[in-house]
Amino acid sequence: MEEELNYTNAFEELQSIVSEIEQGEISVDDLSEKVKRATTLIKFCKLKLTTTAEDVNAILKELEN
């Protein structure tokens, strides 16, 4: 069973992929798939951070009123 993707899991997986690439542990055959997965994870993390920032700003604005 696959874990539900959340920011922490996505960030940890992304760090793992970067580490593998930096250490040369990925074969040329797997590199394309890892880069595609990393791109997906980066987009997910960016969206999560943006959404969270918007939520926090909305809450803070409510508190000001």
Compact summary:
The protein has 65 residues and is mainly α. It is built from two helices and no strands.
User: Main beta sheet, described?
Assistant: none
Compute the CA-based radius of gyration: 16 Å
How many runs of DSSP E, i.e. beta strands? 0
In round numbers, the mean pLDDT is 92
Low-confidence stretches: none
Shape: rod-shaped
Q: Percent of residues in beta strands?
A: under 5%
Distance between the termini: 45 Å
User: Helix-strand pattern, N to C?
Assistant: HH
Question: Treating each run of at least 4 consecutive H or I residues as one helix, how many helices?
Answer: 2
Helix content: over 70%
Which structural class best describes the helix and strand composition? mainly alpha
Can you lay out the helices and strands and say which pair or pack?
Elements lengths: L6 H16 L5 H37 L1
Helix pairs in contact: 1-2
List keywords for this structure.
single chain, about 60 residues, mainly alpha
Describe this structure in words.
- The structure is a single chain.
- With 65 residues, this protein is mostly helical.
- Helix content is 82%, strand content 0%.
- Helix 1 (7-22) packs antiparallel against helix 2.
- The longest helix is centred in the C-terminal third of the chain and has 37 residues, at 28-64.
- The radius of gyration is 16 Å and the shape is rod-shaped.
- The model has no long low-confidence stretch (mean pLDDT 92).
